[in-house]
Structure formats: structure tokens, C-alpha cells
Amino acid sequence: MRKIRLPGWSTGPVYFSHRLKSTSDCLREMAGQGAAHGTVVWAKEQTRGRGRRGREWFSPPGGLYFSVLFKTGPLLEPSFALIAGGAVIGGVKKRVKLNLKIKWPNDIMRNGNKVGGILCEKQGELLIVGVGLNLEIPANLKNSFSPGSLPELKSHPPGEIMGLILNKLEEDLEVFQENGFLPFRNEQRRLSFLLGRWVTVDNLQGQVIDYGEKGQLIIRCADGTEKHCWQGTVMVLEEE
């Protein structure tokens, strides 16, 4: 990796590599060696990118993959992945107006397809936020791999987009630490991919009707009862 200058980001140092196993894993090792608040690791390709619950995050060349380290103190709510998703969308929209949504708890969607993901990992007073965005799908994979992508971002320097996202992340993290999820709830309702849809969350089935005060998903089941989901894998049911 080499240290680079990222226009618009002065909170911490930025390290770049064409290819890494995982930007978050690399940053975790650096954190163990005393990396500063705001340190960023950026790669053009990840060979072992990770998602939630140990899943693999496919990270071919042509995407935007980076992780940032924040020294936060204790975070009492688990919903920062939602806030981070909103920050990513907000940063992107400063350059390109796209209709992007958030699929609770950490997926970024476009036209019903996943185009990005957030992975937040907390260790003590350290928070690592990993961001992955599909800018294009390599031609040799298009027939067998069909997520969405954000080709409009390719006309902008990737460092510029990263800087906008990082600054929005830092700004929103400060608000979140002071006030929790509530200041973001209306924005999350507006950005929600799930609101009003019928879904399953692990073994629970119902219609998504709102977010709770701490970012939990509120689902109304067929019998009229309401359930609060704090974690889980969401599957959207086919709409008739």
C-alpha cells in the first residue's frame, strides 16, 4: 500500500492499493498497531471482501471499495449501518442525482438491484465502516452475475466521490453519537426500499410499516400484531 492525498479529506491518512484481500481486515490490523482516527484504506479490487454474517462481498476490478476507522467511544445503538448508507447516498448525490434506496440494514439499492453495501464493525471504542459500490460489472461476468451498478460515477474521479462520502459519514456520525437514530428517521423513511413491502426476516413474515426509535424494523404480521426486528436477513416477497 502507498499513502496518498485524498482531496477534501483531512481527518486521517489515506492508503491505496490496487488489490487487497479486504480493506476492513487491513484497517483492523492497522488499528491494532495504533492507526489514527480517520484512517482510510482504499482498493480497486478485493479478493476476500466481506459482508454481514460472514458472507462474501464480490469485489471485482471496477468498483469502489474502502474502509474508514473512527475512534468513537461507546455506541449504544446498532443502527449506524443505516446512517452510513444514507451518508453514502448523500455523498454520491452531491455529484450525480440517482434514485438510490436503502434495504435495511445495510444494502444500497437501485431499481430493485443491489449496487452497494455497508459493513460496520465495532471493537471497543473503534468503529470500522466498510463501503463497497459497484461502478461496473466486468464484461466476462455480466451473463452470470447480475447486480446493479453505478456507471454514472465513472465520469468523476473516484477520490472525489470518496471524499464526499467520507465527510458525510463523519458529519452524520457526530450527530448520531450526540442524538442517536431519531434525527435520521424521516430521511431513512424516505430512502427506505422496504417501507410498505411484504417481507420475511428470518422466520418472521409481515409488512414493513416503519422504523423504531433506534432504527429497528417494525413489521405488521398478518394477524395484526407488530414485531420489532433488531437484526436478521430480509427477503422481499414477490408482489402480485
Fill in the keyword field for this structure.
SH3 type barrels; BirA Bifunctional Protein, domain 2; eight-stranded mixed sheet; alpha+beta; 13 strands; 240 residues; five-stranded antiparallel sheet; 4 helices; 22% helix
Give a description of the structure.
- The protein is an alpha+beta fold and 240 residues long.
- It has two domains: 2-190, Bira Bifunctional Protein, Domain 2 (BirA Bifunctional Protein, domain 2), CATH 3.30.930; 194-236, Roll (SH3 type barrels).
- It contains four helices and 13 strands.
- The chain has helices spanning 23-32, 80-93, 158-179, 185-191, and strands at 2-4, 14-17, 40-43, 64-71, 100-103, 107-110, 113-123, 126-133, 198-201, 204-211, 217-220, 226-229, 234-236.
- The chain has an eight-stranded mixed β-sheet with strand order 1-2-3-4-8-7-6-5, sandwiched between helices. Strands 12-11-10-9-13 form a five-stranded antiparallel β-sheet.
- Strand 7 (113-123) and strand 8 form a beta hairpin.
- Helix 2 (80-93) packs antiparallel against helix 3.
- The longest helix is centred in the C-terminal third of the chain and has 22 residues, at 158-179.
- It starts with a strand and ends with a strand.
- The relative contact order is 0.15.
- The model has no long low-confidence stretch (mean pLDDT 89).
